[in-house]
Amino acid sequence: MRKIEILTALGFIAFSLAVMGEANKVGVGTPGKAFQPGFFPFWLGALLGLCGTVQLVRLFTTGARASYVPFFHDRTAWVSVLKVVATGAAMLILTYLVGFYTAAIVYIFVYLRFVGRHRWPAVFIMSLGIPIASHIIFEQVLQILLPQGIFSVIPYFG
Predict the structure, then answer these.
(1) How far apart are CA 102 and CA 15, in angstroms?
(2) Contact (CB, 8 A) for 112 and 127
(3) Residues 21 and 46 in one domain
(4) Closest CA to 13 of 75, 69, 55
(5) In a domain, 157, yes or no
(6) Same domain, yes or no, for 49 and 90?
(7) How far is Cα 23 from Cα 91, in angstroms, rounded to an integer?
(8) CA–CA separation, 58 vs 66, rounded Å?
(9) 42 φ, ψ to 5°?
(10) Distance CA 108, CA 118 (A)
(11) Using CB atoms within 10 A of its CB, is residue 66 exposed (0-12), middle (13-18) or buried (19+)?
(12) Helix and strand tally (H, E) in the chain?
């Protein structure tokens, strides 16, 4: 188990170095100048590298071996993970077919009601409110087009 933890920490450090290198290629920006496109990814990579380094140091300094804990304790854990994976995959497929907004309405509705078992008023408010707020923020304020589907179910949203 310890070897896996060490390899994972090293993998995080290697990945963070790759992210920082690629971000540096597009420009990070310097104090007094405007931030360049690589600023945010660079510092996220640095933070990830710091976390990997802290984990690696912790593994070598504690010396204690972690006890084995099964990843899934019972069948309920498997079912919960499968629900999340299935709804996420359905969201991706629906986004391709009917666009982000329609897919988001369906995804949030199904996830809140059938996976999270929330009450109906919250389900309706969130499943309509989040896509509408996303549309206002991304397409009207930031002028960033979100994916449009092959089929248009909701005419204005696409």
Answers:
(1) 34
(2) yes
(3) yes
(4) 55
(5) no
(6) no
(7) 29
(8) 12
(9) -60, -50
(10) 11
(11) exposed
(12) 5, 0
In the block, residue with structure tokens 């359905």: 90
Predicted structure pTM score: 0.57
* Cβ 10 vs Cβ 56: under 8 Å: yes
Tens digits of pLDDT across the chain (158 residues): 678 888 999 999 999 999 999 988 988 876 666 777 788 899 999 999 999 999 999 888 876 555 556 667 778 878 888 888 998 899 999 988 888 888 999 999 998 998 888 999 999 999 999 988 988 888 888 777 888 877 776 666 55
The two three-digit tokens of residue 14, written as one number: 């290697």
Identify the CA nearest to 8 among candidates 45, 78, 59: 59
Domain extent for 122: 75-141
Q: What is the pLDDT of residues 100-125, one digit of tens each?
A: 888 999 999 998 998 888 999 999 99
pLDDT at 65: 59
Do 7 and 55 sit in the same domain of this protein?
A: yes
Q: Which two tokens stand for residue 153?
A: 């179910």
